[in-house]
Write a structure and sequence with these properties.
The protein is an alpha+beta fold. It has two domains: 72 residues, Alpha-Beta Plaits (2-Layer Sandwich), CATH 3.30.70; 246 residues, no CATH class. Helix content is 61%, strand content 8%. The chain contains twelve helices and four strands. The protein has a four-stranded antiparallel sheet, covered by helices on one side. α1 crosses α8 and α7 runs antiparallel to α10. The radius of gyration is 21 Å and the shape is globular.
């Protein structure tokens, strides 16, 4: 008999997490529908099962999602603020900004003048994304991909095809986005609005990485769930070139960092610049995702993960503020920041 069960999900922090939980639990025999709600931190499950004891249900379902870093529980997850982690995160973030200003001075990065973001900045944002939202959903895809193909005795080629497809796909699709910007010719006002949107999206993502103000999770923008579910459904096909296609279409997964970079690519108004920006962003995500592909433990579950995320959050927040102020500089509303 089909029954509806409601549990709380621990470890869920973004819209990509809800997609992965829904997709994973739907594959369990007898489960007909799963709805994960990020704002409430809970999961609604319709399951045709003789098991009625909630604890037994949790014990049966948890192994399916624990490999992705989530678990079901009867009580809502209460996270300690761990404000002491800021004592470590703040000095590291300050050291980063000193290095950031030095790189700005020699022209390797560019977020605090009237010019557009440089490739090194896109690379760095990719690195931050790879240990947060990208790790949540793309990491889950990689683990599922590895499991499916390992059963066929192919331990590494699918992962290699996935990463190659991801890099090529991000370049081509990023180029198309950049070309769309060239076609529509948004002009100074359009660029100002896009720059402002990029900054706001990054600001929300940075605050979410701090894991202190949980209400901001409701503000995080994302593509419709249908896009993400379509991408996740591709992984069920075990054709040899499916990993290549799957890597390419991760471009459309609901990752706030990816969406911010897509907006940036649109503002560049060039196929080559848009493609290169998205390629460098994807390259930034590559080291962590590649380590995950070949057996390394995810950083998000490490003992010092909280310190890392708070450091990354502080860095992203300041970068976002620089990006927002940069838009006002480009518009001529405020003078250039710093004398570089």
């Amino acid at each position: 008999m089909k029954k509806k069960h409601i549990f709380y999900a621990h470890g869920m922090h973004c819209i990509a997490c809800t997609l992965l939980i829904e997709e994973t639990l739907t594959e369990v025999d007898g489960v007909t529908q799963v709805k994960a709600k990020l704002s409430e931190g809970r999961v609604e499950i319709e399951w045709d099962s003789p098991i009625e004891n909630p604890i037994e249900i949790i014990e049966t379902l948890n192994p399916h999602i624990q490999k992705h870093g989530y678990r079901l529980a009867l009580e809502k997850q209460i996270k300690p603020s761990k404000l002491n982690e800021f004592f470590y995160a703040i000095p590291v973030a300050i050291a980063f900004f000193i290095g950031f200003l030095l790189l700005q001075k020699i022209g390797w990065i560019n977020l605090i003048s009237t010019e557009k973001m440089t490739g090194l900045t896109a690379l760095f944002i990719g690195l931050i994304a790879s240990v947060s939202t990208c790790l949540a959903v793309v990491g889950g895809l990689i683990l599922s991909l590895s499991t499916n193909y390992a059963k066929q005795g192919d331990p590494w080629k699918p992962q290699a095809r996935f990463h190659i497809g991801r890099l090529i796909g991000f370049f081509i699709l990023g180029g198309i986005v950049g070309q769309l910007g060239a076609v529509f010719q948004l002009g100074p006002t359009g660029y100002f609005i896009l720059n402002l949107i990029v900054g706001i999206v990054m600001l929300i993502l940075g605050i979410n990485l701090l894991d202190v103000f949980h209400f901001t999770k409701k503000l995080q923008p994302s593509l419709p769930k249908g896009f993400g579910k379509l991408v996740l459904s591709v992984q069920k096909n075990t054709h040899q070139w499916t990993p290549f296609l799957l890597g390419a279409v991760t471009f459309f997964l609901p990752c706030g960092f990816t969406q911010a970079m897509q907006i940036q690519a649109l503002s560049l108004e060039s196929f080559w610049q848009g493609g290169l920006t998205m390629l460098l962003f994807a390259l930034g995500t590559f080291p962590v995702l590649a380590l995950l592909s070949f057996g390394a433990a995810p950083l998000k579950n490490g003992k010092r993960a909280g310190i890392f995320f708070k450091t990354a959050g502080l860095i992203v927040i300041v970068l976002a503020l620089f990006n927002i102020l940069n838009g006002f500089v480009a518009k001529g509303m405020i003078p250039p920041l710093f004398n570089f």
